[in-house]
Request: fold
Amino acid sequence: MPVPGREGSTLVADRIEETAREVVLPLVEEALRVGKRQVETGRVRVSVSTDIEEQVVRETLRSERAEFERVPIDRELAPGEPAPAMRQEPDGTVVVPVMEEVLVVERRLVLREEVRMRLVAVDEAVEQSVTIRKQRASIERLPPPTAEDGPGNAR
Reply:
């Protein structure tokens, strides 16, 4: 017997009557599956360049040089007088006695000269050209690939 208002369900209604009034209705459920995928929205190109710049540096360098002065003495040492020893004077000068034996009827020690050595500081201004390297990074934003580019057609 047809169910009023449901013209297409007469077959179902007939089966309901045939199955001893037991109704089995299949239940359908929709399932939702959520996923994600990566989408490229743009690209960035970074390049590094090195600039070379010449600079002049100035610095004062200190060095020392030795100056020598020969002072003639030519004095004969008295018998028993000890030979003068090397000494340093208050101004930093180092005095080195130079001795000589002279052959005479008798031998006498004669102080011929002293060598005076003094260290002198010298300041010298020096200029030298040096190479300095500097790096800079430039960043360029690129548009995302289009569908025509296709996969693997990276720029």
